[in-house]
Amino acid sequence: EVQLVESGGGLVQPGGSLRLSCAVSGFSFGTSEMTWVRQAPGKDTEWVSTISIHGGSTHYTDSVRGRCTISRDNAKNTVYLQIDTLKPEDTARYYCNRSPYWGQGTQVTVSS
After folding, report:
1. Which residues contact 63 (CB under 8 A, 6 or more apart)?
2. Residue 77 region, left (φ>0) first, then alpha (ψ -120 to 50), else beta?
């Protein structure tokens, strides 16, 4: 059974930081690019970041570049997304993804 389990979300003040985690099982994590996407209320899903198989290549959407770091630990079958200097517009449910698999997401709310 494929499982992607996100965690690490929460309520944080603007300017704060969060580290999201996604623990994977049921497919070959070490041979899979992994992606984080997010969906804000009433908006379409937005691609956030992708990391290559061994972590040597990372990509970010413009709105988070310089504030986000995606990383992975292939020994732990886990991908991470560190988000710094959080803004209210980062409020969304964050999902890790490796097509066609999705997790249940973790909610990030940025508010004072």
Report:
1. 89
2. left
Whose tokens are 């009433």? That residue is: 42
Buried b (16+ CB within 10 A) or exposed e, 79-110: bbbebeebeeebbbbbbbbbeeeebebbebeb
Residue 45: which residues within 8 A CB-CB, separation 6 or more?
A: 37, 38, 39, 95
Share of residues in the chain with pLDDT > 90 (%): 98
Phi, psi (deg, nearest 5) at residue 58 = -130, 150
| Alpha-carbon torsion (67, 27, 25, 95), positive or negative | positive
Residue pLDDT, tens place only, 5-59: 999 999 999 999 999 999 999 999 999 999 999 999 999 999 999 999 999 999 9
